[in-house]
Amino acid sequence: MRFHFQRWVPYITLLVFFGAGASAFAMGGPDKKCVACHAATGALQSSPTAHKPLREGRCQWCHKAHGAANTNILHAGGGRSLCMICHKNFAPAKGELDVHRFSAKAECGACHASHDSGKKALLKKDPQELCLSCHSGIKARLELSHPHPAAADSCLACHQPHPSATEHLLISEPSELCATCHETAPLAKSHAGFTLDPASCITCHDPHGSPNKGMTRNREHAPFSENGCSNCHTSGKTGAGSLLEQPPALCQTCHDTIPGPGNIHAPVKAGECITCHTPHASNAKGLLQAPVPGLCESCHQDLAKGESLHPPFRDGACIDCHDPHNSTNPSLLKLPSKELCLSCHTEQLKGLFQHVPAVKGDCLVCHEAHAGKASPVLKQEASALCLSCHTKTVSGAIPHPPAKEGRCIICHTPHASDQPALFRASQLEICGACHKPVIEKKNLHSPVQQGKCSACHMPHGSDNAKLLKAGAETLCLSCHKSLLDGSHGPPPTEGKGACLACHDPHGSDLPKLLKKAEPDLCYGCHTQKDAFQNTHAPVAEGSCTTCHNPHSSQGPALLNTPTVTATCASCHDLADKALQTKHQGAALPNVDCAGCHEPHSSTKKALILEGTHPPFNEGCDTCHAAPGPKGGIVLNDQPPALCITCHDALKAPEGSVQHAPFKAGECFACHRPHASKNEKLLILPNSEVCMTCHEAPALPKDGWAHKPFLEKACRECHSPHYSENKSLLLRKDGALCLTCHQTIAAAVKSTHSHAPAAAGECLTCHEHHVGKFSKGLVSPPQELCITCHDVKDLQAPHKGYPVTAKQCVTCHDPHGSNNGGMLKQTAHPPVAKGACNTCHVPSSPASEKPFSLNTPTPGLCFTCHKNVAAAAQMAHPHPPVAKGQCMACHAPHASNRASLLAANPKDLCLKCHEGLRAEADRAISKHKPVMEGQCPLCHTSHGGDTKGFPRGEVYRLCLGCHKDKSGNHPYANHPTGGIINKYTGKPLTCLSCHKPHFSDKPHLLVISGCNDCHK
Predict the structure, then answer these.
(1) Nearest alpha-carbon partner for 463 in 452, 474, 476
(2) Residue 504 half-sphere exposure, CB side, CA atoms within 13 Å?
(3) Neighbours of 695 (CB within 10 A)
(4) What stretches of 882-973 adopt beta strand conformation (E)?
(5) Strand locations in 708-749, DSSP E?
(6) Which candidate, 558, 435, 552, 553, places its Cα nearest to that of 505?
(7) Which residues, 6+ apart, have CB-to-CB distance to 284 below 8 Å?
(8) What is the mean pLDDT of residues 891-919?
């Protein structure tokens, strides 16, 4: 074999650089500091093949200084970029191809050692062994019976290891490369006299090795293998020769069945057979120009757009699905699409229920044929793909997380299933996979046990919590309606919590799916009543259901019987003589046992009620005589005379107004004679006793109710027995009202008071219990004032402006004020001065719009309030200021609040920042100023140069209250400001760790812990 010096020049230079040239460099030892730790590397310094920086002790040429153990900090990020600092001659020149696998990845270390390998050029292995360790396919060809001698000796005979201007890193163009060893002229004789072009050698010969003599490729065209060149060519004796006929006619003399019927492959249709096939020899089946994947890709380059590849496409098995010449199916498919897909995916449609596109064979509705955006070869991410057809599946304010995230296949199979809705398994198995605690209980709810989760839940989304089909109570009663056949039901079945207050909806280790055992469950709402000295036996045993029905009942207090006495009779024999004797011979079946006895526990013997009539404690004979021969109860006198013997202070003065039952002597209409759990021995608590006679007026929708009336505190205003005032009022109308309404009481004593208010005639304007209008007014404000005041008479004192009654309270306090005309405490200066035309166009009889402004707002307001005008121009103005909506917060004429505010600051702010209410409800920790409505404590009202317009630097603002944090934070001595947070790049402030309003974490924290920053 010839030796071509020019070809080896780069490699000789390389060897000189690393080997022979070493003597040209000053020898030295590795840096002592480096060797102190890296002794093994330092020992390589004396090797003649060691890397130059190592030999000269120049560790810093490649490495930066570092302190962490086992950390390489390389210059230029390491890799090829580092090597190129010195080895510039191996960088690709203009026009050269940087295609070597490792060079392209900047991995010089794949072939070369960093410090020493004991071989030239720091190679990790001998050159030939190194190349073939990756190029296993070429290694296999070199082991065939006819290897290429040059390739067997050294890959570097033909290839360069670094960048090259030729394909396959050849050291020269193919037309020149073969000719460097083989003279083509003498070879014409063995090639039927045809003139040879060295560039075409590899069309018939394999450049590395072959099982055939002459290194011809594995597969040969039949005429070629039989030396039958004349079958296709004219004689080559005169030189180049020519084809007997042009393709495709020449090819079809043998291959007359191509093309067949149907759709024809474009090259076949154009007769370009040699676009895909070689005419002489090939290593690929069917004499293809290249293996199938590369050959097809040469034309169909747009098929690999996606990360998920169809295995046949990935493996280059294009002809597994497509006929290369012609087909009666679209896209040259070998079979109709459904049959073709199922020929491999045989299991996909096995199931009673099938996905519609799969049944129709429309696999490409969901999948790409070659490459998809998501696995397995999907057209788009599954989250979007399913929803492209099932657009209304995820509905409702609360979506099921898998449905919201598009993880449909967690529950559903995409092709077929034996379960309805293409479920992967039974509902119990699918739901239980995530909700394991639901199915691990001893007793399961029937729908859960039967795997019918969808009986109660929507699988994808719902407007109800927990994805329920309806409210919990509605759902439960759809099956358990009979449980509420009684006329009385407990609060849990009538409001928030409903059935779920007591029962677990899925399963429980307790009977009846109870969340806790009796009586602990009952005591979750009902205060435990067995802590006294004397306890009713069922209570002591914790058996609440002995007396009570847990769901509904025809009797009071959910008793198991219609009456208290009937319930008592279920255990106590009311006909027992001894029991009757203890009760003065009373006919016990007709007696209300709860009139004297506490049903649960009491400090008194025989469970007597805590509140007892004094004579009852001292002895029955104070009120009762001994029973007669026939038994029965005998009183010493009849009420009210009997009662007056002790309660003589209740004798009503002459002419007083008396309560009807009191006047009729019907003391027992309101009081019990022996004992009661209610104050004053009342038969019902508080004002419930009043409602037995006085029907409560219905509260109008969106109406008003007097607070004592709402709280059933009738006795705050009325005497229960007699009074010198009408309606049994404790004081006269005005005096009574002002005992609570202190602000109005002060207004009434002002210099200028409203006549009805000053006279105590509150009911002239207000209702006393409920009303249709705000503040309990007897009629709308626009009608109320004109019942006394003629608006025509008011035009003159209002500078000729045609005021209406509706506008009265915008300027005037309806009860009284120290300002003339009863103007509110804070009057707008123009209003106080009567200078209405400062803001309004002067009124005249001809005015169509008598209250027109001289200048539109906010310009009108800004003429005086220049500081607010400046705030509107700040980087962050308050939205109402920016929009010129001054009246959103301020009254234009007068107010009882500072700065003419239209309401208290808390209500004003929440009118727009309504979200803060919901946030407060959810929060664990709440900032005190926010809860107290002191928004102006931290924020300016009109705007600022900082978002949220705080009243100063956040750090200083917080320290205004939290003075104990002025140094470092008490927690871990953490700084609170004055530095840059290196994890965010922003200044450290209180808001780096805390939220300003509410938080779902303690101490208003926004972080979960130190690790959120100190990672």
Answers:
(1) 474
(2) 21
(3) 7
(4) 894-895, 925-926, 943-944, 968-969
(5) 722-723
(6) 435
(7) 219, 290, 291, 292, 295
(8) 89
Nearest by Cα to 100 from 27, 168, 25: 168
Instruction: State how far the Cα of 676 lies from the Cα of 685, in Å rounded to an integer.
Output: 10
CA distance 476 to 479: 6
The SS3 assignment for 766 reads strand
- Rounded Cα distance between 302 and 929, Å, is 64
**pLDDT tens by residue, 3-55:** 343 343 344 333 333 333 333 333 344 566 787 788 888 888 889 999 999 98
In this prediction, residue 102 carries a pLDDT of 67
- The C-alpha atoms of residue 154 and residue 127 are separated, in whole angstroms, by 8
Amino acid letter, 651: K
Q: Which residues pair with 882 in a beta bridge?
A: none
Q: Is the peptide bond before 490 cis (omega within 30 degrees of 0)?
A: no
Which residue intervals of 803-865 are DSSP H helices?
Answer: 808-811, 829-832, 859-862
Once rounded to an integer, what is the mean pLDDT over residues 730-744?
Answer: 91
Q: Crossing angle of helices 905-912/915-922, nearest 10°?
A: 100
Q: How far is CA 170 from the centre of its chain?
A: 58
- Look-up of token digits 């409702």: 396
Phi, psi (degrees; rounded to nearest 5) at 21: -75, -5
Q: Give me 501's structure tokens.
A: 């207050």
So what's the pLDDT on residue 877? 93
Convert the pLDDT of each residue in 95-108 to its tens digit: 776 667 665 556 78
Burial 199-209 (b: 16+ CB within 10 A, else e): eebeebbbbbb
DSSP annotation of 195 reads P
Task: Tell me the sheet residues that pair with 623.
Answer: none
Considering 70-74, 88-92, 172-176, 998-1002, the range whose residues carry the highest mean pLDDT is 998-1002
105: left (phi over 0), alpha (psi -120 to 50) or beta: alpha
Contact 905, 916 (CB under 8 A): no
Structure tokens at 605: 């013997």
Tokens linked to 893: 């004429």
Q: What is the DSSP letter of 205?
A: B
Q: What pLDDT score was predicted for residue 140?
A: 92
Asked whether the predicted pLDDT for residue 441 surpasses 50, the reply is yes
Average pLDDT over residues 841-847: 77
Furthest C-alpha separation in the chain: 158
Nearest to 462 by CA among 383, 540, 401, 510: 401
Rounded CA-CA distance 995/1003 in Å is 9
The strand pairing partners of 398, in sequence order, are 462
Give dist(CA 382, CA 405) in Å, integer: 9
Contact 461, 399 (CB under 8 A): yes
The amino acid that residue 587 corresponds to is A
| Residue 823: closest CA among 890, 891, 773, 888 | 891
Integer Cα distance of 835 and 829 in angstroms: 8
What gap in Å lies between CA 45 and CA 539, rounded to an integer? Answer: 93
Cβ neighbours of residue 918 closer than 8 Å, sequence gap 6 or more: none
- Rounded distance between C-alpha atoms, residue 362 and residue 855, angstroms: 69
Cα–Cα dist 100/108, whole Å? 11
SS3 of residue 983 by DSSP? coil
Three-state SS at 747: helix
3-state secondary structure 596-627: CECCCEECCHHHECCEECHHHHHCHHHCEECC
Compute the distance between CA of residue 37 and CA of residue 490 in angstroms, rounded to an integer: 79
- Name residues whose C-beta falls within 8 Å of residue 990's C-beta, 6 or more positions apart in sequence: 954, 955, 958, 965, 976, 977
Q: Residue 5: how many CB atoms within 10 A of its CB?
A: 7
Q: Which residue has the tokens 């009246």?
A: 887
Task: State the average pLDDT for the chain.
Answer: 85
Cβ contacts of residue 935 below 8 Å, gap of 6+? Answer: 905, 906, 909, 929
